[in-house]
Design a protein that fits this description.
Number of helices: 5
Low-confidence stretches: 1-37
Radius of gyration: 22 Å
Order of helices and strands: HEHEEEHEHEEHE
Mean pLDDT: 87
Largest sheet: 6 strands, mixed
Strand content: 5-15%
Shape: globular
Amino acid sequence: MPLSKPSPVPRAAIVVAIAVSALAACSSPPAGTSRATDAAGMSFFVTSAGPGRGGDLGGLAGADAQCQALAAAVGAGNRTWRAYLSQQPTANVPGVNARDRVGKGPWRNANGVTIATDVEQLHTANNINKQTALTERGAPINGRGDTPNRHDVLTGSQPDGSFIAGDADTTCGNWTQSGDGSAMVGHHDRTGLDESVPAKSWNSSHLTRGCSADAIKSTGGAGLFYCFAAD
């Protein structure tokens, strides 16, 4: 018995297949971006880069703008983003607590993992560590033991998220200085030189050696900071 010839594929089916393939290609995430990064779900990240001026972030407004721009670059610009940074009181400006700037929670990273359900948990038993403190693109950040070490995250805050009173500069001149001064940092990887509470603190570990990019780098950071969706 002669073998029958396979039926030809209808032209319409070929057109549909090509269209589906093209749509899938267009929906693929850019290189270096986690597919799990979702504008509707992400509400917390560590900046992949600072403005590039060390501790001079352009004040709180400039830091907020950096958070907003980085979030917008991955499709999450529809949220109201705020930098987790405190401001020290001076004769011209009031003190501002980082904890009062970030909304009520809950907050999730770019992969949908919850890092804290509310402000209280954020400052007691949160889920921030090297595996969860991801950038806006869902990428991990070098910690202690990696080269280069980038685990210092700018906060200018006490462990409870409030500003640090006194004459000592702990905010690089309220985030306007890139030379003299210092800033309080936390360790996003919860690891330090010992097992002390400050060494494992995500938001209040030690001061930087200065406010320049090089000084911050020599301390173990890169001028990065935390961003939270406050709405």
